Amino acid sequence: MIATLLTIVEREGLDAINMRRIARELDVSPRLIYHHVRDKETMLVILFDEILSRHMPELGGLGWEATLREVADTAATAYRRYPGVAAIMLARSARAYALPHAAIVRDAVLKALAEAGLNPDRVEAAYLQFSVLVLGSIVLAENLTDTGKALAVTRSRIEQSLELGLDLLLSGIRRLASESAG
After folding, report:
1. Max CA-CA distance within the chain?
2. CA nearest 133: which of 101, 169, 103?
3. What is the pLDDT of residues 25-49, one digit of tens each?
């Protein structure tokens, strides 16, 4: 079932996922699918965790800045393959904590932010901003349309803005950490 979910999402996007479609692709009764997963939400949770498990960032032995950059780069690469997933992850980020692989990544990001010298309240705020920056950039890139306006936003421009946004966020983290230390 997981391979089928990944294939459909990669080919057609998250909107193509539903219980009947998965059953049809697997040539089984929808009841059999419901026997394994309670509902579409449960199926999405399984899908999200599988995507993370296949695209885990390198988390060991890096400094705090390198860890954040690695997570951002890995997420941007992984979620680009699966249209719609970044938007749902961003919208449901509070519930994503229960996913085993999401918890590993979240804990690594929180640890990196603490290692940067932020106090606990700022660690949480920085984590939220980091998530919005990374996942939001992916969502923007997925939803590009030709508006016909002179200031056209391109995928490469969004990727550049993610890099700039990450640079700005890291700079702000360093400043806040130095204020806390001083």
Report:
1. 64
2. 169
3. 999 998 999 888 888 888 888 888 8
User: Distance (Å, rounded) from C-alpha 1 to C-alpha 180?
Assistant: 49
Q: Indicate the domain borders of the chain.
A: 2-181
Task: Give, in degrees to the nearest 5, the angle at Cα 56 between 62 and 33.
Answer: 160
* Contact yes or no for 154/140 (Cβ under 8 A): no
94 phi, psi to nearest 5 deg:
-65, -35
Domain 2-181 annotated CATH 1.10.357.10: yes
Percent of the chain whose pLDDT exceeds 70: 91
Structure tokens at 109: 């990001």
Token representation of residue 173:
């983290």
168: how many CB neighbours lie within 10 A of its CB? 12
* Structure confidence at residue 25 (pLDDT): 93
96, 41 Cβ separation under 8 angstroms: no
**94, two tokens:** 């509070």
Instruction: Please write the tens of the pLDDT for every residue from 128-172.
Output: 999 999 999 888 888 776 554 544 677 777 878 889 999 999 999
